[in-house]
Amino acid sequence: MAPIQKECDYLVIGGGxxxxxxxxxxxxxYGAKTITIESQRLGGTCVNVGCVPKxxxxxxxxxxxxxxxxxxxxxxxxxxKPFDWTTFKHKRDAYIKRLNGIYESNLxxxxxxxxxxxxxxxxxxxxxxxxxxxxxxxxxxKKILIAVGGHPSIPDVPGAELGIDSDGFFELERQPKRVAxxxxxxxxxxxxxxFHHLGTETHLFIRQDKFLRSFDPMIQDKVLEEYERQGLxxxxxxxxxxxxxxxxxxxxxxYTDAGGKGELEIDCLLWAIGRAPEVEDLGLDKTGVKLDKKxxxxxxxxxxxxxxxxxxxxxxxxxxxxxxxxxxxxxxRLSDRLFGGxxxxxxxxxxxxxxxxxxxxxxxxxLTEPAAREKFGDENVKCYNTTFMDLYFTMMDADGKSPTNxxxxxxxxxxxxxxxxxxxxxxxxxxxxxxVAIKMGATKKDFDRCVxxxxxxxxxxxxxx
Length: 465
What we know:
Its cofactor is FAD. This protein has helices spanning about 15-30, 45-50, 50-70, 85-110, 165-170, 185-195, 215-230, 325-340, 370-375, 425-440, 445-450; strands at about 5-15, 35-40, 115-125, 125-130, 135-145, 150, 165, 180, 200-205, 235, 240-245, 250-255, 260-265, 270, 275, 310, 355, 360-365, 380-390, 405-410, 415-425. By secondary structure, it is α/β, with parallel strands linked by helices. It has three domains: about 5-50 and about 90-150 and about 275-340, FAD/NAD(P)-binding domain; about 160-275, FAD/NAD(P)-binding domain (3-Layer(bba) Sandwich), CATH 3.50.50; about 360-460, Enolase-like, domain 1 (2-Layer Sandwich). The strands form five sheets. It has a five-stranded mixed beta barrel.
């Protein structure tokens, strides 16, 4: 049976946040005939195995922290049972499934045709889609967006398949008793914090002496200190030799770290060593679209690939910001340019705020201190730092106090703020407002002119000396 033939103005391969945002704007706002293809669940990584379920789990871990801290405020909280991981997981799944339905409904409202299947390029303007029932559809499109996202990487270690990746974290039906997490990026740090505060003995294996290596040194140092103070087991300068099955769900991890060779019996091993673009079976060789050494699709500032009328955005491209709001913003700007007559529409990739939902939270925007010194010269950079105790912790014993650390990186005589790095309670919410100020080019004097709100942590950012 010959494949069904379809035509459209705009074909979006990938139903994640960026692809959906671009498709909906192209169709709903500008009337372009648009088709979206997704082979898994709508919403992509963020909705299904990323931001949303991660933040829900972080909320649960934060509640566990609060229960522990409540006694310092005069409360007696008795837990008759441990945290019910399984019930929590099923309730979280139900919420995500509801979101999947909302995403599909929104596509329908904006008149985007949605096809559930796997796409494969036949040519620069033609794609073959294998549907769930095995039948084929061929789609010819005037413009094609590659927004397929990425997937977690697994290392080449004997027995590595006995572990799970960050996607698998959200499939766990029962809470592990002892977990080994391998990785030094924000995913590893976030999941380590969540496991620990929910009661799992947590071991974090990092390759060097610090984690979050793309962040400001203050953040690296202070989060590491705080994790070790809280009781997480951080294995520095580590590597993994093998994983063996011990039966009954337990494994043995053989490793080396700064202390030498070791073995650890665990009932969960989680690889969080990075992500790779989802391009393996996309058929890009049929299009002439180039890939870089890591398999990402290089794009210019307008999301153009090297092939006319093929575009890419989100985690699959080489822009370096694997963040949902970045993909959404890039997708909308792209549709504004392609179908809305806005020839100069593009996403500005500088001064993008980001947050790590660690324990405590981390927020960052702009340049790190080393990057600023390299770009502008030591003599033109001045940093303002503060370490203090949030008022929340004043009622607690010394071993329960968690410090807050802030840094402003300023440049030039006018002391323009080119970097802001914060760690402590509420950092995610604090950063959003200050991000607007930095995006507008605020200086240290602009910060100083803002009257402080007392007593808050954020007031420290407008009173730094």
